[in-house]
Write a structure and sequence with these properties.
Chain lengths: 521, 206
């Protein structure tokens, strides 16, 4: 009951702001399922709007009001969920999932004959429930127990470490150590002594690299160097300046001729520039590209010193560098994979994105390029990245994180946002308000669901090619529309059996998502 | 009918990384300057309602990333633009020299109906910095603008809010003009088609 009160209050408050939008918009709000329970509480004048003006504008164009409404609806939904969470803390998420994939939620999809792979499983009641879970961050005690005392070698299966980090990230005090492993500075099978000598060697190697430009006036006078230098400078002074590590300005700028608008800097900013410039010489083909400073900043803050930060950054870049290639093929591929994934997991949302010309998924570009660096708060980014580095379920788990965020907002996107620009604005504005743990839980559930569906499809396909029997397809309806997943795909020579055609195709890009090995994305 | 229609003016801001696109947009829409703005990744827009010639219009101002390799993915929203704002940094020669390619790229990607007369506006930003750092003179910039069909030119500072309001008023005005023209064309799509059909018969009408 208290909950209704809150919502009601919210409606009144928001309504005053919405009033300046058209009556049409007002009617829209009140028609929203979330608003229905409070309609009886509204003053008659407002209530009348529901019946008013049935003729909707036919021309769809950008409407800031719709974004406003969408946000409002999202906040009401969030409050409702929050209230429920207080009452049934553990159940709420798993219940949501049950509901999400229950028949009732599936029905409207079926009417559109756009049901994807879910159908294949919906008839099967024997499957165990999916079990996604989060746990406490890995602490120092557990971390050190993974290594033997004498030589300091890993004495448990690497998978155990990966899973622990995946489930809860790591505590602050061991982060610096754990990251050195995940970012490839320390091999997993190294001993304590080996690690010490690795650090020594890396230090020397870094200084040699840095010397290539640091005290070479000839290099420094080249136009390429100058251009890269100013690029790096421009970005470093715009990167995470609210973090105290980068905020202070207590040092005169070393280059009075620089185009920077402030003549002050600090040591850490200068180290950031040095690391990026050295990387520019270390990876000459790539050089510095925008976005890299975002990837470096957390790594540097965690590693604390320039040398270790450089090598940790190199390790991170080894898996990220393709995002920054000139041809952008890798970015396109990831967006395409996400497109396939949405189509496979949520055909109805996919159709909506298609209708609104949004399938380029451009609003996910930033998410993927720098792994949600701009979407979560500082501490959360550290946590999210180590979860992603763990490669516990998939080396491309970030795409499931992307799917999870879209999934959470799917109803709102489909109901309120009718234009590419509206969706882009709404999604961009989610930044800094996405609850991370919940998103990770959702992402894991989606992954498990995905995995299960792929297995089920493969099994059915195998069955179909082996027998010609028609009745092995109970619970799977014939789709009238065109194949919802992947049109540009190999049919893998799976024969022309009609039965086979009923299943969504698991494209190569989708299959790649089941891979945990980063060396072959 | 069309006069009652809500007017949305789509404006695209282009220019090299770091010239101040994000800062200009925020100065205009939110009336503030912050050194905390991050390098733009992907694209975003802000909207603002303004009066132009006694008409209330909504400006949708698109801010994009300046680094060229990210452009290829971002051209989708060039389409339907009503005005394109080209920004350079008056203290940075290269950012001025690339204006040509920004303009060309825009015309290719947006493919406006009448490229010759599509409205551009050029902004030379960061005029608040010391005179000694200035790399592109006002005269040089104006000469370029004239050579491209008299593009309106403003010298601005997003930091000190110099000339920003002024510049965007012109941007809005020219965008509205463009939008009205486009609407006119849209209302009469037939003549073009008829022309094409007729050309079969009187192509030698010269
Ligand atoms: N002095 C001065 N500095 C400015 C002005 N406008 C922007 N800056 C600074 O120039 C740098 C770049 O500004 P942004 O607005 O982020 O540049 P941008 O064109 O959006 O850059 P990208 O997003 O990388 O394409 C920032 O450090 C700003 O603080 C100005 O008018 N005067
Ligand atoms: Mg910007």
């Amino acid at each position: 009951m208290e909950h209704i009160e809150t919502v009601k209050w919210n409606v009144f408050e928001q309504f005053s702001k919405v009033a300046r939008f058209s009556r049409d918009t007002a009617a829209n709000i009140l028609e929203h399922p979330l608003a229905r329970p409070i309609i009886p509480h509204l003053p008659p004048g407002v209530n009348n709007l529901i019946q008013s003006d049935p003729a909707r504008s036919v021309v769809e164009e950008y409407d800031a009001g719709r974004i406003y409404l969408a946000k409002w609806a999202a906040s009401v939904a969030e409050q409702a969920e929050e209230a429920a969470r207080l009452e049934y803390p553990d159940q709420i998420l798993s219940n949501n999932w049950k509901k999400r994939w229950s028949d009732t939620e599936l029905k409207p999809w079926e009417e559109e004959t756009e049901v994807g792979a879910f159908e294949i499983l919906s008839g099967d009641t024997t499957l165990p429930p999916l079990h996604a879970s989060r746990s406490d961050p890995l602490n120092a005690e557990t971390w050190f127990s993974f290594f033997d005392d004498s030589e300091g070698r890993l004495r448990v299966e690497l998978n155990e470490v990966r899973e622990a980090v995946f489930r809860g990230g790591v505590e602050d005090d061991i982060r610096i150590e754990v990251w050195k492993f995940f970012l490839g500075i320390y091999p997993w099978d190294s001993s304590r002594v080996e690690r010490e000598s690795i650090l020594e060697a890396k230090k020397k190697e870094y200084l040699d690299l840095k010397r290539e430009w640091w005290d070479d006036p000839e290099v420094q006078s080249s136009s390429n160097y100058k251009e890269q230098k100013s690029r790096i400078e421009k970005d470093v002074i715009r990167t995470d300046r609210t973090i105290s590590f980068f905020a202070v300005e207590d040092m005169p700028h070393p280059d009075p001729l620089s185009s920077a608008s402030s003549n002050l800097t600090n040591n850490n900013l200068e180290s950031m520039k040095a690391i990026l410039m050295t990387y520019n010489f270390y990876n000459k083909d790539l050089g510095y590209v925008q976005g890299m400073s975002d990837l470096l900043a957390p790594v540097f803050v965690v590693m604390r010193d320039e040398v270790t930060a450089f090598w940790a950054f190199v390790g991170f870049m080894n898996r990220m560098e393709a995002n920054f290639y000139r041809d952008q093929v890798n970015m396109r591929n990831q967006l395409l994979t996400l497109d396939h994934l949405i189509q496979f997991m949520d055909p109805r949302l996919h159709k909506h994105l298609q209708k609104t010309d949004s399938l380029n998924l451009f609003f996910c570009f930033r998410w993927i390029l720098i792994w949600f660096k701009r979407e979560f708060k500082w501490d959360e980014v550290l946590y999210l990245w180590e979860v992603l580095w763990s490669d516990h379920l998939s080396s491309q788990f970030h795409l499931f994180v992307a799917l999870a965020i879209l999934d959470k907002h799917r109803m709102i996107i489909m109901e309120y946002l009718h234009q590419f620009d509206e969706i882009l604005k709404y999604v961009n504005d989610l930044s800094m308000s996405i609850p991370l743990d919940e998103t990770l839980l959702r992402a894991e559930t989606l992954f498990l669901q995905f995995q299960r569906m792929v297995t089920a499809i493969d099994k059915k396909r195998l069955g179909d090619t082996n027998e010609t029997s028609q009745d092995s397809n109970e619970g799977v309806r014939r789709r009238k529309g065109k194949d919802p997943v992947n049109n540009d795909n190999n049919d893998g020579g799976e024969g022309t059996s009609n039965n086979t055609m009923r299943f969504p195709v698991v494209s190569d890009l989708l299959r790649g998502l089941l891979n945990k090995d980063t060396s072959q994305p | 009918m069309s006069s009652r229609k809500k007017v949305l003016l789509k404006v695209i801001i282009l220019g090299d990384s770091g010239v101040g696109k994000t800062s200009l947009m925020n100065q205009y829409v939110n009336k503030k300057f912050s050194t905390q703005y991050k390098a733009t990744i992907g694209a975003d827009f802000l909207t603002k309602e303004v009066m132009v010639d006694d008409r209330l219009v909504t400006m949708q101002i698109w801010d994009t990333a300046g680094q060229e390799r990210f452009q290829s993915l971002g051209v989708a929203f060039y389409r339907g633009a009503d005005c394109c704002v080209l920004v350079y940094d008056v203290n940075n020669n290269k950012s001025f020299e690339t204006l040509d390619s920004w303009r060309d790229e825009f015309l290719i990607q947006a493919s406006p109906r009448d490229p010759e007369n599509f409205p551009f506006v050029v902004l030379g930003n960061k005029i608040d910095m010391e005179e000694s750092k200035r790399a592109v003179s006002q005269k040089r910039a104006m000469t370029w603008c004239q050579s491209k069909g008299n593009i309106p030119y403003f010298e601005t500072s997003a930091k000190e809010a110099i000339n920003v309001e002024n510049a965007f008023q012109t941007i809005a005005k020219n965008a509205l003009q463009q939008e009205t023209d486009a609407e006119f064309y849209n209302d009469f799509p037939d003549p073009i088609k008829i022309d094409n059909d007729n050309s079969k018969y009187d192509s030698c009408g010269c």
